[in-house]
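Thread: Response regulator, structure

OP (GT): Posting the sequence first so everyone is looking at the same thing. Length is 652 residues per the record. Can we get the structure tokens written out before standup tomorrow? I want them in the notebook alongside the other entries.
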Amino acid sequence: MKMKQKILIVEDEFIVANDLRIMLEKAGYKVCGIAPSVVKALELIATKEPDWILLDIFLQGDKTGIDLAGQLTEMGIPFIYISANTNQGILEAAKATLPYGFLVKPFREKDLMVMLDIARYRHEQNLKYNHHTEPPIHKQIEHIAEKQVSISERLKQISAALYPVVPFDFLWITKSNPRSTTKDINIIRSFDGKFNMLNNENLLKEVNVSSRDFKAWNTTALVHSGKSIFNGYDFRKLRMESPWVQRLSDHYALESALVTEIERDGEQFQFVFFNHLSDLYTKVHSGVINQFKKSLELVLDQVIYGKDITLEIPAPTSPTLEKPIIERENPEIPKDFNGIIGNSTLLHAAFKKLELVAPDDTSVLILGESGTGKEKIAQTIHKLSPRKNKPLVTVNCAALPLTLIESELFGHEKGSFTGANEKRIGKFEQADGGSIFLDEIGELPLEAQVKLLRVLQEKEIERLGGNYTKKINVRIITATNRNLEKEVSEGRFRLDLYYRLNVFPIELPALRQRKEDISALVAFFISKYGRKGSSGVTGISAEALQELQEYDWPGNIRELEHLVERTMLLTEGETITKIDLPHSASATGFTGEDHFKIKTMEEMEREHILNILKMCKGKIFGPGGAAEILNIPSTTLNSKIKKLGIKFEFVK
């Protein structure tokens, strides 16, 4: 960061703010003010015109740093969060505002300087690519709202997009003025994390309330005072004032609520988010939801009061798929995407990012679930770059033995450790001049993360047992299916390394988010395996294709490919008419008639513990408790529950 750039500190603890001022001025920065609240910060921004802002999340007054962040993004002022809170929900909400860094208090002077340096680099790259525009969730909701699928399916997908920043277990959307419950929307989050919709008729049956009582209880809007957060006493008071909320909360064990009002054409609507936890919602969540009001307006306009579409995806007119390879009609998409098939908006957005960043040397972080094609994206980035004639070295970080990670990545000298009988050239040296793809970067242990950070900053490596450094010219591409923010918050991944790698993220959508591509993918796989001569299948019936489009594909494209290959082998004739989908999964990871469903060990362990907890009605300790059944100490089970993100409603 250039010397004498002006930095505004927005922090309500004077001692912390003053320490920051001393550190920054010592390093050559100019501190143009200290603000304890959003109101004061906006005054100083108008008069001092800072280049950067260091921003605490919880501040004096009604507004938080999250509220200010939305305005800073609109003004084009880059900012870094400084907060003592590493709660995962807070991190997700902060992430949605696109900061250039996040420092956890207390931090060292060196941490601050490194974070500022990383932030400057990321800001330069974002200006270069014009990449730092609006939070991705706006784009996600806009894309989902315009999909040609049913209202129910769109609302489920929108719920999944909103959940990380505004967690909820029940969402009630209703018209508050003029009062009407005829088109109420009720969305429930089940124990396995899926979202389901209930119309009013089915919900009344579920909670055992008559239609007459429901109408009598819902003659007025839920909230009149403008209050939005209902925790503890406030939620108990809300229950007393609203028999309907009381019945909902009793039936679904709801303990808190967040209410936001949206006006459309003179009418008021309420989005009421409920949660099982009694003290979950804070000013941060109300700030985030305020930033997403335009998205919620879109949900009202295009989804809830739009025209329903009965078919999830239009079925093909003929019983078979005759075009094995997708026709690329969009001229903005490069011709060669290395076998990546799809025409969906989300996939095209990833392609555009890829095309933009490929010719450069910027670090790229590819995010996506297992089976979404992250390695193909890495190969394509290399293939479209000036380094295409140099090596692309792929490293699966999850497969590296702990004792050999440094030797594998950076090499070693002869005799540097027992068994080192000869000199070894590490993966980074092998990739010199080209690219290195570090797959499953979230699996890298902390010691190796420190060495990787040095490579990124200094562009040099040192072999184990060596006494000199070697300069290298390598482009680094990384990928993970883990939530790195969660790994950071739990101390398993370095924050400075995360921000250094996350300069240019490319998010690959899950297959359930781009079901419109299933038809083209199925056609491609039928063509691929048909050419191998192992099957005479050349197409698929509309009914079978519809089944594939209604499934949620937890194993993504990899799972679809394996299922198509297996089904082709079992099909007599030229057309697939029957699909054996894995509708119910056991904790063993097998489904149906021993059909393998791709799961990580962590997913299988989580599912198994959830099943036991449900069987024990949430009891952990003592006779008949989950710990006894699993034959592990209750302390071990508690730590697993925390690590696997199992929510408190399953634990007593």
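GT: Both are above now. Quick notes for whoever picks this up: Residues 109-129 form the longest helix (21 residues). The radius of gyration is 27 Å.
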